[in-house]
Specification:
235 residues; mainly beta; 8-stranded mixed sheet; 13 strands
Length: 235
Amino acid sequence: MCGRYAQTTSRRSLEALLRAAADADFPARYNIAPTQMIPVALVEDGARRIALHRWGLVPEFAPDVASGPLMFNARAETLAQKPAFRSALQRRRCLVPADGWYEWRAVGRFKQPYLIRRPDRAPVMFAGIWESWKRPDGEALRSVAIVTVTASPDLAVVHDRMPAVLPPETWEAWLDIRVDGRSLALRGLHPAPVGTFETVTVGARVNQATNDGPEVQEPAPAIAEPVADAQPRLI
């Protein structure tokens, strides 16, 4: 899964990278959590743009925002079957810019946080799907889920899932709703090749979503693995 991530690439750099104009400015974020507003790239009326969406997809048929689970992730394997995701997969796909994400691994009674990023620190694009839900007052709430896939073998030691990271040559097809979404989900979303990402042990500051500065990414010593209790000797 992907429950926290970072997006620190500037608006100007993302506009150049994605060949898209941003509707609004957005600050560097080092510890983004679900329900917060995030920049996504999408195509509307034939133009590519970057807009802010709520992280945590609200299906069009939901009676209210709080109904059901918080759908901040969507498994690639079941996108075409889930009623909450089917329509978005076909008609509302987007790119979610990021430059790293966080996962936690249990170590004894504690959880070790990791930052996963490219060794060259370059930004990446997660596959996303978005939806528009109408509030009672008629205003539209736009929300998004990040698509996940099975983790690549070198990352599976931390977590068995990872965001679906799209190579640049696939961005256009993912955004083009003329391309069949079911086919893309089943055949076009794969774990990243081994060695694409590095894992960095970071400190406990990242555990609190209110900590959102660069200090949450500072490397920290790994939590020591628990030592098995010694077995009593039989005399």
